[in-house]
Backbone:
């Protein structure tokens, strides 16, 4: 998607949907017909309507129109938004319920991200119904702390909020792990936010990199005009609000969204995700990345334009597996470790990847995987399944 | 045609307003359909994709990320059946150049089709299976997407022995246990638009054990009886356990019709048919001896309101559909209502919405739970607790706070 220089990005009447135009015509019609007198109506009646049907009726044509308008709502055509809900429910319902297929006797320890520790508490309670001897302990300390912990205690599980890299795998292998694997158990969504007055309708990866890096490599972007915005936004400076180099969101953005490049030097640092979003709400030229759940009426979450596809920042795109700005919540363990430990951990992960385990993750604030993503994790786990 | 002309025309032929409104209702759905971009990017001729060694996170790969637009078990708008489980009867190894058959089950559709261990399935229904661009296209899910109503699907398979690639048309085996019947309800009022029907099979002996394939949600209109078909996964059915079926019609956050009592069934000995479920309006006094679905029905809309209310008050937003489903099922299992606010207060989102420091977190927790700001002393007390308990101490602090704040 590109913007022609000088073109306005305000929606034109051609750009509005068929639906909104029809709404306007019908509204005008109803208004018009209600305001017209009976005499005027009869004078304009066309012979082709078959007005004989109404000749005997005392009701005027405008009331007939109004009644028909009201009755049409009982026709029962399912509006698109309700069907979308239905499709979303079908995705959620396609997750497989848990059934105990293996044994969990003994303790599994998860170390790492603090928020996953909270979720693990819920798993621990819920899984006891199926495995009464199961013990699950969780300790916080952060993703990196979790991975460090595995170097000395390879029989435990690390909870990290980013994908596992080749370098991590090598490090774990050199510490004695035979087959370190990362199982994705939930998704954290990020979104690109701009001010509601910003006329951008979507953003491409290239535009994002241009804005965030403002470098020779990706192109200079001092003002919104550099992206083709016109009129009041052409000269408006681009202001990137971010968290500063040490925050997890920042590190993630630089590594995966900017492919190792740094965020532009003139970015404004804020001390929390909420502060970053509030800053964009107050600055028409502002832009930021923040967790999707901080979406509100005060900011606009930009749809992503990737290839030929427009991907909205909402639950639907995420559950359909289309939305790319996701931080995976991974549990890392040694698939080649001691048999008994591995059985316990695999059983735990089977619960986590089941419908019940995924809905636990949802209650704790994550997005669930869809069935295709679950199948991939089950394959990494090495579960034998009949097809 | 200018706007004025059209308005005048509509005024002379006002019945056309009806057509315009009908068009309006349809156009919303039409634009939704046309708005979906075509499913692209996987090769249809079985040519294996090369696998770049990069993460799928961030923006994804530079080429279009392959994805199936409709989820595999998506039921069409007015279908009253859950999807049957069509199986080949194989175990597999997923690779970047197809799905290698590891084992073939005896007397299975795979054996009948002549598949052997070592054969490689390249495509199902024209779509590549195995790992493509770091993403797995599971052969079972692809079969579910591409199988026709009679259970047959075409697969491109590379024969181990000859090395040749053959296009096989395979008749799959339906391994589900079907439970068929219909639903009727006494029609005191017509159903509101958007009403949904849910039919469910539950395990009575172990209520926490859900039955795979045992839930069906669908839109319905006025026409009765409504046929339904549940395709249960037999691996969830245990011969010594008891099962029941029930149904309800919902509109928004209300259950308007439901089975007065669940009906006992035994799906462990094979498929069942001709099950008639008669729904009564919620609010009708159930017959003596039946518990009625009414307790569940009133609890249902109360729970919907409760969930909406807490998300709004604590997180300033409406819950997503996943969240609503998750909490409704949680409460249906008889769990405590206070788990909801306690979980929300312990969440990262709540912490971030408060401003991401412990002091601001305590302040916001006081304001949303007890409607006042904490005094300096109170703030210090709770800060000390948080410090003592360390990084995941927040959920424990929340539990203690909730207990302290609850009316005695």
Residues:
């Amino acid at each position: 998607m590109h913007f022609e220089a000088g073109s306005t990005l305000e929606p034109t009447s051609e750009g509005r949907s068929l639906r909104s135009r029809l709404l306007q015509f019908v509204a005008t019609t109803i208004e018009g017909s209600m305001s017209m007198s009976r005499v005027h109506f009869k004078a304009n009646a066309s012979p082709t309507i078959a007005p004989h049907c109404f000749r005997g009726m005392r009701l005027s044509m405008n009331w007939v129109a109004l009644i028909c308008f009201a009755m049409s709502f009982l026709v029962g055509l399912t509006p698109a938004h309700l069907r979308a809900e239905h499709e979303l429910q079908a995705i959620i319902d396609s997750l497989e319920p848990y059934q105990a297929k293996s044994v969990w006797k003994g303790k599994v320890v998860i170390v790492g991200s603090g928020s996953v520790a909270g979720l693990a508490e819920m798993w621990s309670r819920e899984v006891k119904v199926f495995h009464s001897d199961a013990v699950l302990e969780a300790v916080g300390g952060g993703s990196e702390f979790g991975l460090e912990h595995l170097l000395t205690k390879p029989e435990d599980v690390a909870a990290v909020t980013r994908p596992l890299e080749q370098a991590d795998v090598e490090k774990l292998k050199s510490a004695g792990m035979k087959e370190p694997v990362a199982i994705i158990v939930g998704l954290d969504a990020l979104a690109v936010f701009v001010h509601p007055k910003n006329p951008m309708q979507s953003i491409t990866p290239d535009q994002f990199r241009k804005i965030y890096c403002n470098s020779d490599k990706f192109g200079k972007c001092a003002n919104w005009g550099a992206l083709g915005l016109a009129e009041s936004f052409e000269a408006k400076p681009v202001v990137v609000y971010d968290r500063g180099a040490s925050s997890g969101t920042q590190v993630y953005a630089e590594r995966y969204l900017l492919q190792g490049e740094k965020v532009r030097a003139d970015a404004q640092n804020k001390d929390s995700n909420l502060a970053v979003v509030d800053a964009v709400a107050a600055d028409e030229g502002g832009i930021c990345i923040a967790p999707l759940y901080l979406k509100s009426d005060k900011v606009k979450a930009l749809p992503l334009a990737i290839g030929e596809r427009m991907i909205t920042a909402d639950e639907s795109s995420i559950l359909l597996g289309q939305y790319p700005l996701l931080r995976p919540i991974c549990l890392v363990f040694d698939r080649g470790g001691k048999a008994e430990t591995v059985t316990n951990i695999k059983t735990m992960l089977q619960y986590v990847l089941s419908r019940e385990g995924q809905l636990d993750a949802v209650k704790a604030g994550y997005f669930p995987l869809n069935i295709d993503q679950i199948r991939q994790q089950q394959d990494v786990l090495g579960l034998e399944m009949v097809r | 045609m200018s706007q004025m002309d059209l308005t005048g025309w509509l005024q002379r032929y006002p019945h056309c307003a009806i057509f315009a409104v009908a068009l309006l209702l349809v156009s919303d759905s039409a634009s939704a359909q046309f708005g979906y971009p075509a499913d692209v990017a996987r090769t249809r001729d079985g040519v294996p994709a090369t696998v770049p060694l990069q993460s799928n996170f961030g923006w994804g790969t530079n080429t279009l990320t392959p994805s199936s637009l409709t989820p595999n078990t998506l039921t069409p708008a007015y279908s009253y059946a859950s999807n049957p489980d069509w199986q080949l009867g194989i175990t597999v190894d997923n690779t970047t150049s197809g799905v290698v058959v590891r084992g073939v089950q005896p007397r299975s559709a795979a054996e009948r089709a002549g598949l052997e261990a070592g054969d490689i399935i390249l495509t199902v229904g024209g779509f590549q299976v195995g790992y493509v661009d770091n993403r797995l296209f599971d052969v079972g899910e692809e079969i579910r997407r591409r199988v026709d109503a009679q259970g047959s699907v075409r697969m491109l398979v590379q024969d181990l022995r000859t090395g040749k690639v053959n296009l096989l048309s395979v008749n799959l085996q339906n391994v589900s246990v079907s439970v068929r019947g219909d639903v009727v309800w006494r029609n005191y009022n017509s159903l509101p638009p958007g009403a949904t029907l849910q039919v469910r099979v539950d395990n009575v002996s172990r209520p926490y054990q859900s039955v795979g394939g045992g839930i069906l949600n669908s839109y319905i209109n006025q026409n009765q009886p409504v046929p339904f078909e549940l395709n249960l996964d037999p691996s969830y059915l245990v011969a010594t356990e008891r099962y029941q079926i029930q149904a309800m019609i919902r509109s928004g956050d209300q259950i308007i019709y439901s089975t007065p009592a669940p009906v006992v069934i035994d799906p462990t000995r094979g498929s069942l048919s001709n099950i008639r479920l008669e729904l009564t309006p919620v609010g009708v006094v159930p017959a003596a001896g039946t518990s009625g679905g009414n307790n569940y029905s009133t609890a249902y809309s109360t729970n919907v309101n409760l969930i909406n209310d807490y998300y709004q008050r604590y997180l300033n937003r409406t819950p997503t559909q996943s969240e609503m489903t998750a909490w409704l099922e949680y409460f249906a299992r008889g769990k405590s209502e206070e788990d909801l606010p306690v979980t929300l207060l312990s969440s990262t989102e709540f912490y971030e919405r408060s401003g991401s420091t412990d002091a601001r977190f305590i302040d916001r927790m006081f304001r949303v739970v007890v409607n006042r700001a904490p005094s300096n002393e109170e703030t210090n007390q709770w800060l000390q607790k948080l410090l003592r308990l360390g990084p995941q101490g927040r959920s424990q602090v929340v539990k203690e706070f909730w207990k302290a704040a609850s009316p005695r």
About this structure: Chain A has 15 helices and eleven strands. Confidence is low (pLDDT under 50) at residues 1-16, 36-57 of chain A. The longest strand of chain A covers residues 180-194. The CA atoms of residues 200 and 375 of chain A lie 37 Å apart.
